[in-house]
Design goal:
By secondary structure, the protein is an alpha/beta fold. It has 14 helices and 23 strands. It starts with 8 loop residues before the first strand and ends in a 22-residue tail after the last helix.
Length: 480
């Protein structure tokens, strides 16, 4: 399908994250037509993904439907599609959803396709160590974490039980610290009295990083404070340790002397790195732009590509002046790009080069513990935690999501409960199963009826379906 050319200036926005969504909203009063193309139908508030993964929030609270957010903006159309090609010479964007291919023409283009998890060339780690970049990742990790306690309860072999009760988190940045802290809270508070054969407070949590600091971007003082807080939560912090192996029974790390140590763990979370969308490579090849080590395309000072002032690249897939990969960068760039397009069609002079205004950084460690780096102020503890709560509620989309988030935070932080402890077998196996059968992104629902084994499944009597699966063995196997 080819979308018709718009009568007005047509802006295509790729991605529905912070950059894409804020750009579309900013253009609502401009004399343009906007088409937003995204591989998902939701706007994901990524900073709170770890709370979905640890049962505090539901996915709907941090990922409202993009159409619902933009329904009042009459000049904006939203299309589902995985963008696979951008032709800058012919000004077209090709996207796929199921078996439908859409080619969309543009006059101006804003590419905010985000980033994916980087395994630093060790993609063979992927089946055993999910990242945390999507709702699918968060739900799989929730399933793995909660199921690990269930298998530990079943296990009779003490060594295997300890493996189930050991959680390895790779990466001591904000995401890794937040995950490690919440797994500790889950084990020591929420699940403390829920089991009979195991003591969840004996859970072992290992946070590993190849660098020499926790939350290194926050400065030495806050980094040291965060490390002390993690120790109080019984989180083992292993610094200057490079991960050289990961499988379904744990991971192997190597220190600077070359000594290797195996950490037995049935659950591994990868929070160590990001790399720009593969679209960055294509745009660089077509425009002569350079790429950085993080697979991000280097943009000019006005966020455009060389020789193509109509193409803006913003957010995690671009590189400019060493700006950090935080949400404020794409938000501010989205506003800048939208204003630049509006000024052009009105015949106004160009803006000054883009400059990022750093509003500071924050990270939570656990309940009542956080660190904040805001301008000249560097502080931690409960004040930083309260500030973190206020800011994150402010940036959530929609009154309903803000209200339910506050209620669930009250349940989790003031009490001991977690509202989202439900897991399914699909959450545990879906990602690897999809990869095994080679399903494309945005496959249509009808694809399921053509998967291998469907004909045999039709002949099974549903009334005896329980006999189709083998009973779980007491020794168990990794939930991967």
């Amino acid at each position: 399908m080819t979308t018709p050319l718009a009568h007005r200036h047509h802006v295509v926005v790729v991605g529905s994250g912070f950059g894409g969504l804020f750009a579309a909203k900013r253009l609502r009063r401009s004399n343009v037509d906007v088409t937003l193309i995204s591989r998902t139908a939701q706007h994901l508030f990524q900073p709170l993904l770890y709370q979905v993964a640890t049962g505090i929030l539901s996915e709907g609270e941090i990922a409202p439907a993009t159409r619902e957010i933009l329904k009042r903006y009459k000049n904006v159309q939203t299309l589902l599609g995985d963008v696979t090609d951008i032709d800058v010479a012919n000004r077209t964007v090709t996207s796929h959803a199921g078996d439908i291919t859409t080619v969309t023409h543009y006059d101006s283009l804003i590419v905010a396709a985000g980033a994916t998890t980087s395994y630093f060339g060790n993609d063979h780690f992927i089946p055993y160590a999910p990242g945390l970049k999507s709702i699918d990742d968060a739900l799989e990790l929730r399933g793995r974490i909660l199921t690990a306690f269930e298998f530990a309860e079943l296990e009779t072999d003490e060594d295997a039980r300890r493996e189930w009760l050991t959680f390895a988190v790779v990466g001591a940045g904000a995401t890794g610290v937040e995950m490690a802290g919440q797994i500790s809270e889950l084990a020591h508070r929420t699940l403390k009295n829920d089991f009979r054969s195991i003591d969840p407070t004996m859970t072992r949590i290992v946070l590993v990083d190849a660098l020499d600091e926790v939350l290194g971007s926050f400065g030495t003082k806050l980094s040291a404070g965060a490390a002390k807080q993690l120790k109080r939560l019984d989180v083992e912090v292993w610094l200057n340790e490079k991960v050289v192996g990961v499988d379904d029974r744990g991971m192997t790390v190597e220190d600077q002397s070359g000594k290797q140590t195996h950490i037995p763990a049935r659950t591994t979370v990868w929070a160590a790195g990001v790399r720009g969308s593969s679209l960055a490579n294509s745009l660089a090849e077509q425009t002569g732009a350079e790429m950085d080590k993080g697979n991000r395309v280097k943009v000019q000072d006005d966020c455009t590509l060389p020789g193509h002032p109509e193409v803006f690249v913003i957010g995690d897939m671009m590189s400019l002046k060493g700006y950090p990969g935080v949400a404020q960068v794409p938000m501010q760039q989205a506003k800048y790009a939208a204003n630049a397009i509006d000024r052009r069609i009105k015949g106004k002079a160009p803006q000054k080069p883009f400059e990022y205004f750093d509003k500071g950084s924050m990270a939570t460690i656990s309940r009542f513990r956080a660190v904040a780096d805001v301008g000249p102020f560097h502080f931690g503890g409960i004040i930083a935690w309260l500030l973190w709560l206020v800011i994150h509620v402010f940036y959530l989309i929609g009154f309903k999501n803000r209200l339910t988030t506050l209620l669930h935070w009250a349940v989790s932080f003031l009490g001991r409960g977690r509202a989202q402890r439900t897991t399914t077998s699909q959450q545990l196996i879906a990602r690897n199963a999809i990869d095994a059968v080679g399903l494309p992104d945005n496959a249509s629902p009808s694809v399921a009826s053509n998967l291998p084994g469907q004909d045999a499944a039709k002949d099974v009597d549903p009334t005896t379906s329980s006999s189709r699966r083998p009973s779980p063995q007491r020794s168990g196997s990794a939930a991967s």
